[in-house]
Amino acid sequence: MNFKSFAVRSFRQKFFLSYIALLIAFLAAMFPFVALSVQKIVYCSLNNRADELLDSLKIAKDSDELVSIIKERKHYIFFRIALLDSDQKLLYDSHTKHLMRPLFFPFQFTSHKEVEQALAMGTGYAEEHSEILAQKLIYMAKSFTLGGKTYVLRVAFPYRYTQELRDNFELGFIIFSSVVLILFSSMAGFLLHRLTKPIGQIIDAIKPYQEGKAKDVPKIELNADPSDDFGQLANTLNSLSDQIRSQLTAHYKILEMKKEFIANASHELKTPITIIHGFAETLHDNVNLPEETIVASTEKIMHSCERMTRTIRNLLTLADIENALESRVAPCDLVELAKSCISTVLAVHKTATVELVYDERAEYVLHGDEALLEVAVMNLLDNAAKYAKESPKITITLREHEDSLELSVQDNGPGIPEEHLERIFQRFYRVNAMHSKKIGGSGLGLSIVETIVEKHGGRIFVESILGEGSCFRIEFIHKVVV
Questions:
Q1: 319-325, long-range: CB within 8 Å, 24+ apart, which pairs?
Q2: CB atoms within 10 A of CB 356
Q3: How far apart are CA 397 and CA 384, in angstroms?
Q4: What is the spatial distance between Cα 177 and Cα 191, in angstroms, rounded to a whole number?
Q5: Smallest Cα–Cα separation from 163: which of 175, 155, 171?
Q6: How many Cα atoms occupy the beta-carbon half-sphere of 86 within 13 Å?
Q7: How far apart are CA 158 and CA 136, in angstroms?
Q8: Which of 241, 189, 240, 200 is nearest to 223 (CA)?
Q9: Most Cβ neighbours (<10 Å): which of 17, 187, 252, 477?
Q10: Which CATH number fits domain 1-218: 3.40.50.2300, 3.40.630.30, 3.40.50.1980, 3.30.450.20?
Q11: CA nearest neighbour of 48 among 175, 186, 157
């Protein structure tokens, strides 16, 4: 299924269906409105003309003069005019008089609703069929007083004229509505095209990913104002796509790191276990081995056990760093910590010399886990001593900056090749695997240092020159909480 065509078509169908429904509702409401409007126009016209005639009757002195004035002005009224007294006695009727001619005389008028309304409320209105004129008429009656007597003026208008007027109004309304419909439909079609075009561009952009032809959702670029709704939608989708891509990349890296970590840890533990198993089996199967062979075998077993112990201890240290608690955070004096580490290193490496350089006027207090910070500094010092030349020379330098503290460890070792500098903090990574195994390195020391530093909100950098030595520099932010 073409998702783009379906989505756009569905949107257009909904739009036009809504438009047609609104149009039908509008027309259904407008036709009764037209009918009521025509009725109101006729009513107002009759009422106004009747009021004008009533104004002209004010000069009459009696009923005879009233009839005389009405006769003179009967053509002023649309169609038919009659005059009644308060007893509904017909005094004059333009059409009845015309039909009866000399035989006409005042007689009791048949009761009609509009006349009764006029006598009761001043004005009456009705639509009735006239037997005399054989057609339906619209009647209006208005009461008035003259010489202390009450009279009713009754005027009529043919209903067919009202119907013709209504038909003309409806025809005009239909023509006007059709013109408006055509114009509005054209505008709606144009606007709908403009609205659905960005939707189509968005669908075209994500379609390759939907069909599995692309690994990532490509960037959506619209030919529209970035500040409008569709531009903001595209920016939001691009942002979400970048976040998903970043999360997937990070997740993939974490999985790869976990796989590599498990493989390296398994290898680090498998090798000493294999050595221990081999020599233990040899001692078990050969009871009468020479003493020197037994001593050499047991030394190999002890060395492998120590190697396993170091690896497990380092792994436990990494786990402890990841789960460090805030309750262990306290002010830590880096000067005192450095002096303590120097004493320990000198006790192990008798030929090493370590110098501590710092400004006695400055304060080197950091909020953190002192035990973990000591592990980090000890690992750097131990590496500097183990990998250095016959007489290791190490310099620890402390510096105070405006918003950070710096601790650096400089050695006179062989240095680190440039191609290895970016990877030396990876777990189980060794620059020289054979030399590391010889001196008992597990490849976890620098990874532990970096993890501790990052746990304290700091950063670690390394600079190295082959044949001259390396310098590890740590920057800590003041009062950082683990």
A1: 320/372, 321/372, 321/448, 321/451, 321/452, 321/455, 322/451, 322/455, 324/369, 324/372, 324/455, 324/482, 325/482
A2: 14
A3: 14
A4: 20
A5: 171
A6: 8
A7: 6
A8: 200
A9: 477
A10: 3.30.450.20
A11: 157
| Burial bucket for residue 65 (CB in 10 Å: 0-12, 13-18, 19+) | middle
Q: CA 322, CA 478: separation in Å to the nearest integer?
A: 21
- Residues 331, 269: Cα–Cα separation, whole Å: 37
Cα dihedral sign, 203-208-211-214:
negative
Q: Domain boundaries in the chain? A: 1-218, 227-323, 326-477
Cβ(201)–Cβ(8) below 8 Å: no
The per-residue pLDDT for range 237-280, each reduced to its tens digit, is 677 666 766 767 666 666 665 665 566 566 556 667 777 888 78
Q: Which two tokens stand for residue 137?
A: 């008429």
* CATH topology for the 227-323 domain: Helix Hairpins (1.10.287)
Distance CA 227, CA 235 (A): 10
As a whole number of angstroms, the distance between CA 16 and CA 200 comes to 18
324-379 pLDDT per residue, tens? 656 678 899 999 999 999 988 888 888 889 999 999 888 899 888 888 888 889 88
Q: Along the chain (482 residues), what's the average pLDDT of each consecutive run of 10 residues?
A: 49 69 73 74 78 80 80 66 83 66 52 85 86 80 86 83 74 75 74 67 70 67 63 69 68 63 61 77 79 80 73 67 68 92 86 91 88 87 83 91 90 86 76 49 76 87 89 79 42
CATH class for the region spanning 326-477: alpha beta
